[in-house]
From TrEMBL:
Coiled coil: none
Main location class: cytoplasm
Pathway: Amino-acid biosynthesis; L-threonine biosynthesis; L-threonine from L-aspartate: step 4/5
Domain GHMP kinase N-terminal: 70-158
Catalyzed reactions: L-homoserine + ATP = O-phospho-L-homoserine + ADP + H(+)
Chain's gene name: thrB
First-tier enzyme category under EC: transferase
Protein name: Homoserine kinase
Amino acid sequence: MSVVVYAPASTANVSVGFDSLGAALSPIDGQLLGDRVLVEAASGDDVIIENVGPYAHKLPADPKQNILYDCYHYFVKQYAEHHSKVLGCVKMTLEKNLPIGSGLGSSACSVVAALEGLNAYLDSPFNKEQMLIMMGELEGQISGSVHYDNVAPCYLGGMQLMLQEAGVTSQAIPHFEDWYWIVAYPGINISTAQARSILPAQYRRQDTLEFGRNLAGFVHASYSKQPELAAALLKDNIVAEPYRAKLIPGFDEVRSYAAQSGALASGISGSGPTVYIVTPVLEQAERTKAWLEQHFIQNEDGFCHVCKIDEQGTRVTGTSL
């Protein structure tokens, strides 16, 4: 028996919702922007791990340092505690399609694909809420703190608002289906820890009030289908982007180009260095992609995609890579 699970890339924060908002992304040309994991039966005393894909060479050579190793042993422990059953040995192959430290939820992709792969391999002994909690906890162990703004959209799809109250971790909010999200990764890496360390320890009261107003307004505009208002609120002049911008070469030029081209909004994806620009016009999206490829991408590791919000989230795609 074998199963392959695909987990899409995601943009966390979406500027206006620091640690509170995230969206799954899907290139309109059908390319994979996310990781795949193959889980299949094997024999032995421990999990067998293999890496393939364009960014496999960036992963640790030691299998015990691989994120899938932690996923397997974490899942085994949870499976034994909740179902009193033993998983047994499997082989897990990670097709790494996202660069590490890109701001597109790379670690979340691997965690979500691996854990959902193991769950699907066993005919889903855990429900979605249980899986989401497990994914957040494990990804938090890797990144240093538990944040669901990559894990939730990657797993559930759509645009997700983090709640973490009354037994509800995350819920989808409406999004504008005609918006194109152009995401560009320049080819350099920024660690989440580095991007968090640059932020202030405290914010002024008036800034926190503005942050809350903008996020609430964006959610309201999304529900009431007011794209102009939503786009006007899709910004971060307070919490993260003013500080993280200095970590991203060419970010100011990207913002300037977006404004001059008439784009709806632009910002940093997650902790960066990936940036995004939003437009409702496909022709403009293609022009923006060409500009970013020429002026923002720095090396052969970089890329740019025109995306829509991925509605499906993580899914089983077959039995072989």
